[in-house]
TrEMBL record:
Record bears the keyword S-adenosyl-L-methionine: no
Matches recorded under Pfam families: His_Phos_2
Signal peptide span: 1-15
Entry-linked InterPro entries: Acid_Pase_AS, His_Pase_clade-2, His_PPase_superfam, Histidine_acid_phosphatase
Transmembrane segments annotated in the record for this chain: 581-602
Alphabetical list of PANTHER family matching this protein: ACID PHOSPHATASE-RELATED, LYSOPHOSPHATIDIC ACID PHOSPHATASE TYPE 6
Similarity comment: Belongs to the histidine acid phosphatase family.
UniProt keyword list: Membrane, Signal, Transmembrane, Transmembrane helix
Protein name (Swiss-Prot/TrEMBL): Uncharacterized protein
């Protein structure tokens, strides 16, 4: 009897929940990407040509698509001296980062025998040095529940290695080698003392470290020649941090964005976006047989799709992806939702995530400016400029130009540390080997991201220039008048050019007004929020409206307007979404009350049974 009552209780609770779900209906959204994901029509169950998918960065057309353009303005091409290049990359093509069942019938097998990781250890103790042999790292074939081969999850594969070797070649041609592909008339000149010339920074993961190694090796082989490179360069340091404390990517261990994420997920705009995609979720569930879409959406599912599309792995996408543009619509929906997160509220989440990293970028630019000023015997002007800056600060006048503030702080710091002697060493070429979650928040925080997922082996380049042909004004007699001090920036002829995957983005940066090359102060102003600590709200956001919070009543009203549409709930416990489903709370509350009532009735029945135990209840046989 208790079992029967318990089953009735489950049916009651299930009915309440299903009834609650019916109030959460959404309309169908037919939006697709601005450009087709797949350019050529494909037959069902056949491989899609990776060359037709921009995300894949296929090596067959990689060099053509990623070539770094020269400075377009002829006068600037002849005048500008390139003094520093900072390169931010995403690792190359890799295996899936998780072992999940993406859809019914999904099977994957990844083998990495064609790409070997080598390591060698040395130890130093006083005057004694010991060294080990060079070892190669091989992954034992995984169990079936993993990748079914000799690859580690998230491991760089041969295709990714080749992508970054091409990147190295393109960088050498653009900045180091004489030839028609130089970005300006002057080129970088470096020697084999590379520890002072090149700085390499990477997250402490196999795919980023090997991507950096492939790129730098190819770069040096193009500059010096393969034989000379291996004869003269024994090793180079790659600088890393513990993965739990690394700020090279969006890292929840060092930045707590939970409060802002809750605000975002409860906002009217985001709820509407999710609502517009709900029919797509249902289509994936029913037609593509993505049965565990709750846990896969969005990151794991997009990883399943793109690692399948971009490699020679023999698993194929379900045929449903090639009907009614489901593949394009799925990728578009993921991009729209991720873009909504990183661009929301003046990109505040991006700024929180990437602020420390951008501060490192800014500091390297400041260093190269001071290095160039010292090299050109212009430190006297810097000293006078900074004394004027200090006087303005002391007089509590309006904020001075941000570049001058940063530059003078750096100048005075070096001056104090070295007892009046300023010795500056700064690398010419800086590589940051990171992830998609390095590039996305960096672009979004500067308000120049197009909303599309970074392809494998993406490159974001910051070129820093000095223009010696601009006549420097003397600042010895500059007053502390604000307008005069602002105009003193003209004595600092330093400029930047930003490129993303071979496309110039400088003109999109605020203050650059569409120009290919722009004064460096505009980059500093755009990254003013950058800090070692959690950034302040007023620095991250110019104007923030917090009127997006929705009450349960307004959410219910919005949902009831679409009661004839299909419904599907996507609650990703592993993804970025942690939505507030208040109607589920009330449903389960009602279920709990029902349970309490049923248990109360059971006790009453037991009491009645004890009272009437001496009576003959023969009618029970008929009832049962």
């Amino acid at each position: 009897m208790r079992k029967a009552i318990f089953l009735i209780f489950l049916r009651l609770v299930g009915g309440v929940i299903r009834k609650g779900e019916k109030n959460h209906d959404y309309s169908f959204n037919t939006d697709t990407l601005d450009s087709n994901i797949i350019n050529n029509s494909q037959q069902l169950n056949e491989y899609v040509n990776p060359a037709n998918i921009q995300y894949c960065a296929d090596t067959s057309n990689f060099e053509k698509m990623r070539r770094i353009p020269k400075v377009n303005d002829t006068e600037l091409f002849n005048q500008m001296n390139l003094i520093q290049v900072q390169l931010i990359t995403r690792h190359g093509a890799r295996t899936p980062i998780k072992s999940v069942k993406c859809w019914e019938g999904f099977y994957q097998s990844w083998n990495c025998d064609d790409l070997t990781t080598l390591f060698q250890t040395s130890a130093f103790h006083k005057n004694t040095e010991t060294q080990t042999l060079k070892f190669s790292k091989h992954y034992i074939k995984e169990w079936e529940k993993n990748l079914n081969g000799t690859c580690k999850m998230g491991q760089l594969i041969l295709q990714g290695y080749e992508q970054h070797r091409i990147n190295g070649k393109l960088l050498a041609e653009a900045y180091f080698k004489e030839g028609e592909n130089l970005v300006t008339r002057s080129r970088f000149k470096i020697d084999f003392n590379l520890r002072d010339e090149i700085y390499i920074r990477s997250s402490d993961l196999q795919r980023t470290i090997m991507s950096a190694s492939a790129l730098i090796t190819s770069l040096l082989e193009e500059i010096f020649g393969k034989e000379e490179t291996f004869q003269n360069i024994e090793s180079l340091p790659i600088h890393t941090l513990d993965i739990l404390s690394d700020y090279l990517f969006s890292n929840k261990n060092i930045v707590d964005n939970s409060r802002d994420l809750r605000r975002l997920f409860n906002s009217k705009k985001f709820q509407e976006l999710i609502g517009n995609h709900t029919s797509l979720y249902m289509e994936l569930y029913e037609n593509a047989k993505v049965k565990n879409i709750r846990s896969l959406w969005p990151f794991d599912l997009i990883d399943c799709i793109l690692t399948s599309l971009c490699t020679g792995n023999y698993n194929k996408l379900p045929a449903a992806f090639f009907k009614n543009n489901l593949l394009e619509r799925t990728i578009s929906a993921v991009e729209k939702e991720v873009s909504a997160v990183y661009n929301w509220d003046n990109s505040i989440i991006s700024k929180y995530d990437i602020g420390r990293f951008l501060l490192e970028i800014v500091n390297y630019i400041l260093d190269v400016i001071l290095f160039t000023e010292k090299k050109n015997d212009e430190f006297l002007n810097i000293s006078v400029l900074c004394s004027n800056t200090k006087e303005m600060n002391d007089n509590n006048l309006q904020e001075i130009p941000y570049l001058l503030n940063l530059l003078c702080n750096k100048y005075e710091s070096y001056y104090a540390i070295n007892n009046g002697e300023i010795n500056i060493k700064v690398p010419k070429f800086i590589l940051f080997s990171g992830h998609d979650t390095t590039i996305i928040p960096t672009l979004a925080s500067l308000d120049i991201w197009d909303g599309h997922w970074p392809p494998y082996a993406s490159t974001l380049i910051i070129e820093v220039y000095y223009n010696p042909f601009i006549k420097k004004e003397s600042i010895g007699d500059f007053s502390t008048d604000q307008s005069r001090l602002e105009s003193s920036q003209s004595i600092l002829p330093y400029y930047i050019r930003l490129l993303y995957n071979g496309v110039v983005l400088t003109g999109k940066l605020k203050g650059c007004n569409g120009n290919e090359i722009c004064h460096v102060s505009n980059l500093f102003l755009a990254s003013k929020f950058a800090s070692l600590n959690k950034i302040k709200k007023d620095l991250a956001v110019n104007s923030t409206k917090r009127s997006d919070k929705f009450s349960n009543k307004s959410l219910s009203h919005a949902n009831n307007s679409n009661q004839k549409s299909k419904k599907f709930d996507v609650n990703s416990s592993n993804g970025i979404y942690n939505k507030s489903y208040s109607h589920y709370f009330f449903s389960f509350l009602l279920g709990a009350l029902t349970s309490f009532l049923v248990m109360f009735l059971i006790k009453k029945l037991n009491l009645l049974r004890s009272i009437f135990k001496d009576f003959d209840l023969s009618t029970n046989a008929q009832i049962n």
